[in-house]
């Protein structure tokens, strides 16, 4: 593509792109996010291409692969325009039928429509599907409509318009002021006001200055940043360029997890395209302002999501955090003033500039403006990425959008904030979610992971899971984190093995407080949260493990037994076949029995039994 | 090996800031990071071996041991955890006779866990040489191993 050398040229190009699009021409947009690709979407795209060719429809039907549509549970999926038909769980063999019936015949294929589990009704239009209907997809919306590899797609939906406005008509101070007034808070975890960070970097002495996009999305169960980088990388870049102009930076870095190969590829490609078009590099849009971006891949260390550890990693060192007596805005990367924001935060910036501060302030709560993307995962019917205004209640997110808990099981808790967050019990389901409300009840927003847990999830086991995670990921620099987490985990090991003492609960509480006070960085300071919140809200579960030597959820191996329900057992012998320890006794066609002394509680029989005859007690 | 490593370092203009991506590329080219490779990277970038070693042992992505021909990686993110990943992990450890993070002595398999792949709808997930297998159960894991073993046998016959 040619270099775009002025805001006017950009507008002309946008008009051309828009007028070249025939809104009536059929377009099949297939989700090609990482989740759908794992379902085999690439083959599906090939099938569609083949079918389009076979029917001589090239040029008449557009086939587009886009980023993640968010409803990962239902992949592979496609939206067919102009009717906005939503097909889900599409098999390879369905491609032909879709072309013949829907594209050529205008007929809806009932089988591929989403069925509302509440009403049993099949829904045709994507926007009517409850999962989408109740969302407000302003940041994430572009994902479903553009091909991330095509910069013209992004320009077509208004991309780089905000940048043009900033470079041609706004002073850097004005940009900082608008971001501050909008009330944008960091989406990566802490929720620090972005405007203050930007202002501090702008005012800091020293040069060069840097902007950094933190895409080291380490919270397990959170993947919105990956989806944005994969599906709409230019929106993140545009935010960074605007930020660089505002704070006075000439170079930026995107620090992205190496576990996200597609995100690495798409953002790298976007940077290349942007350079080609003159949206990165010297003299952007003829404004005289120059800025470039480098991509750095992480090395698989969770702690590198912490800003000072991230700087160390970019500098080519081990990612150990340092004490923050001096802020990154004064001395960050290479000891220079640095403005670091997370992927989603950067992607919010162009929207604020383009739509205005008051538009943005109208969305959200008093203390948290705008929307937030949550990744709704775990024991939930509609796994996926959900964007809602700040202040939406947990109940709306989990039940109205998420469709509730599978198998008719009971909701127990939702875990937010990753390893730094906490487990929120049922009593808070009607709480309006924003940064401050979550902190108040002992959890935190984090990057927006929401892991739903049901009655079969053991809260002591979950707490132990996070401690083990953090124990492995602790960089080892400060003692409270390195040793404290280890000791807390050992206590939880004891409790889950039935060897706990009631005193342990007090010990966990004061140790948690000590680690919070004493650890060097946010990883350590927030590490006790999963234990402290489960102790606070699910104390009876800890007590059941300690006093009654019982795991109510049936998870902790030392405290459970697998038994055969003699009424349900058909004697099919499958359990005996899969048992690795030879613990299942009984002849074929007779009721089986599990010898608890030999059983290693691996769960193989439970998984294999088709008659629900294995019970956990 | 020497020319491969030199080329990789040159691609990053021998800038020591790119130590992490350089080691990633070296590992990709060599399957793991042998001592000689670490030494050479140190020389190319003008930094002591101790610095290279520090970084190579800090990040999870690096292996100083040879890795297996088949790379199994089980996601143990929170969503996969609550959906039963721990049972699958133990099952694979039993089947392969190694702990997560280790390689079988015959170099057939390396089995690792990964914190989160961000494909939670498919959880629990096992990747086999980068290919995703969703909703993994013990039985499904067995099937995959069987298939791999057959594949290995035919390879050897060829």
Characterization of this structure:
The complex is a heterodimer of chains A (617) and B (158). By secondary structure, chain A is an alpha/beta fold. Chain A folds into 5 domains: 24-81 and 85-124, Glutaredoxin, CATH 3.40.30.10; 151-361, Rossmann fold, CATH 3.40.50; 371-454, Ubiquitin-like (UB roll); 459-547, de novo design (two linked rop proteins), CATH 1.20.1440; 561-616, Alpha-Beta Plaits, CATH 3.30.70.20. Chain A has 25 helices and 19 strands. Chain A has a 5-stranded mixed sheet. In chain A, helix 7 (161-169) packs across helix 14 (343-355), helix 10 packs parallel to helix 12 (261-276) and helix 19 packs antiparallel against helix 20 (503-518). The longest helix of chain A is centred in the last third of the chain and has 18 residues, at 479-496. The model of chain A has no long low-confidence stretch (mean pLDDT 94). With 158 residues, chain B is an alpha+beta fold. Chain B folds into 2 domains: 2-58, no CATH class; 70-157, Glutaredoxin (3-Layer(aba) Sandwich), CATH 3.40.30.10. Chain B has 7 helices and 5 strands. In chain B, strands 2-3-1-4-5 form a 5-stranded mixed sheet, with helices on one face. Chain B is elongated. Chain B starts with a helix and ends with a helix. Mean pLDDT of chain B is 90; it is low at 153-158. The interface between A and B is large, with 60 and 46 residues.
- The CATH architecture classification of the largest domain in chain A is 3-Layer(aba) Sandwich
What gap, in angstroms, lies between the N and C termini of chain A? 66 Å
Strand order, sheet with most strands of chain A: 12-11-15-13-14
Output the structural class of chain B.
Answer: alpha+beta
Assembly context of the chains: heterodimer
CATH class of the largest domain in chain B: Alpha Beta
Instruction: Please state how the strands of the largest beta sheet of chain B are arranged side by side.
Output: 2-3-1-4-5
Percent of residues in helices of chain B: 40-55%
Overall radius of gyration of chain B: 18 Å
**Proportion of β residues of chain B?**
5-15%
Shape of chain B: elongated
């Amino acid at each position: 593509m040619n270099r775009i050398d002025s805001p006017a040229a950009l507008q002309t190009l946008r008009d051309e792109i828009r007028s070249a699009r025939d809104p009536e021409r059929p377009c099949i947009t297939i989700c090609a996010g990482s989740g759908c690709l794992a379902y085999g979407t690439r083959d599906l795209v090939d099938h569609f291409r083949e079918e389009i060719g076979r029917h001589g429809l090239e040029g008449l039907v557009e086939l587009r692969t886009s980023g993640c549509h968010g409803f990962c549970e239902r992949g592979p999926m496609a939206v067919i325009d102009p009717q906005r038909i939503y097909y889900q769980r599409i098999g390879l063999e369905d491609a032909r039928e879709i072309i013949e019936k829907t594209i050529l015949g205008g007929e809806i294929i009932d089988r591929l429509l989403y069925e509302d589990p509440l009403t049993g009704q099949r829904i045709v239009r994507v926007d009517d599907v409850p999962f989408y209907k109740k969302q407000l997809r302003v940041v994430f919306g572009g994902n479903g409509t553009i091909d991330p590899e095509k910069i013209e797609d992004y320009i077509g939906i208004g991309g780089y318009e905000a940048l043009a406005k900033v470079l041609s008509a706004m002073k850097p101070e004005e940009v900082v002021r608008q971001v501050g007034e909008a009330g944008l808070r960091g989406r990566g975890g802490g929720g620090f006001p972005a405007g203050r960070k930007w202002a501090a970097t702008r005012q800091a002495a020293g040069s060069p200055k840097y902007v950094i996009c933190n895409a080291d999305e380490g919270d397990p169960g959170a993947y919105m940043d990956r989806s944005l980088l994969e599906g709409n990388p230019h929106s993140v870049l545009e935010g960074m360029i605007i930020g660089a102009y505002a704070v006075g930076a000439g170079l930026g870095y995107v620090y992205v997890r190496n576990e996200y190969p597609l995100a690495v590829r798409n953002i790298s490609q976007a940077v290349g395209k942007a350079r080609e078009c003159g949206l990165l590099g010297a003299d952007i849009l003829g404004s005289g302002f120059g800025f470039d971006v480098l991509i750095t891949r992480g090395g698989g260390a969770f702690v590198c999501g912490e800003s000072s550890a991230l700087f160390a990693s970019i500098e080519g060192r081990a990612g150990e955090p340092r004490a923050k007596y001096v802020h990154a805005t004064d001395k960050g990367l290479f000891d220079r003033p640095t403005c670091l924001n997370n992927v989603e935060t950067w992607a919010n910036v162009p929207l604020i500039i383009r739509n205005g501060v008051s538009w943005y302030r109208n969305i959200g709560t008093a203390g948290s403006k705008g929307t937030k993307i949550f990744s709704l995962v775990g024991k939930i019917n509609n796994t996926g990425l959900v964007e809602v205004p700040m202040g939406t209640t947990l109940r709306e997110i989990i039940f109205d959008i998420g469709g509730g808990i599978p198998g008719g099981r009971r909701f127990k808790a939702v875990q937010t904030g990753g390893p730094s967050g906490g487990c929120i019990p049922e009593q808070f389901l009607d709480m309006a979610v924003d940064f401050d409300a979550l902190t108040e009840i002992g959890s935190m927003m984090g990057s927006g992971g929401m892991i739903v847990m049901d009655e079969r999830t053991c809260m002591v086991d979950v707490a132990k899971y996070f401690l083990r995670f953090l124990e492995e990921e602790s960089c080892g620099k400060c003692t409270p984190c390195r040793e404290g987490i280890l000791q807390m985990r050992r206590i939880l090991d004891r409790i889950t093995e039935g060897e706990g003492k009631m005193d342990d609960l007090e010990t966990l509480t004061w140790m948690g407080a000590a680690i919070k006070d004493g650890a060097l960085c946010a990883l350590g300071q927030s590490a006790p949260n999963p234990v402290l919140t489960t102790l606070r809200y699910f104390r009876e579960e800890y007590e059941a493990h300690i006093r009654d030597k019982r795991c109510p959820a049936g998870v902790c191996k030392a405290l459970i037994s697998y038994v055969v329900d003699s009424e349900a057992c058909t004697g099919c012998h499958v359990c005996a076949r899969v048992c690795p320890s030879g613990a299942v006794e009984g002849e074929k066609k007779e009721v089986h029995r599990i010898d608890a002394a030999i059983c290693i509680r691996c769960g193989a029989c439970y998984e294999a039994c088709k008659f629900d005859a294995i019970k956990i007690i | 090996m020497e020319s491969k490593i030199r080329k990789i370092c040159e691609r990053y203009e021998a800038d020591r800031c790119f130590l992490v991506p350089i080691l990633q590329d070296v590992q990709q080219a060599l399957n793991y990071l042998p001592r000689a490779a670490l030494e050479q990277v140190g020389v190319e970038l003008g930094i002591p071996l101790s610095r290279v070693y520090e970084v190579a042992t800090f990040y999870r992505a690096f292996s100083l041991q040879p890795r297996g021909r088949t790379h199994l990686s089980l996601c143990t993110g929170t969503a996969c955890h609550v959906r039963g990943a721990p049972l699958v992990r133990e099952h694979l450890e039993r089947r392969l006779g190694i702990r997560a993070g280790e390689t079988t002595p015959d170099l057939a398999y390396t089995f690792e866990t990964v914190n989160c792949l961000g494909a939670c709808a498919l959880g629990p997930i096992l990747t086999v040489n980068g290919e995703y297998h969703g909703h993994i159960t013990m039985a499904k894991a067995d099937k995959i191993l069987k298939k791999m073993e057959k594949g290995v046998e035919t390879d050897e016959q060829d």
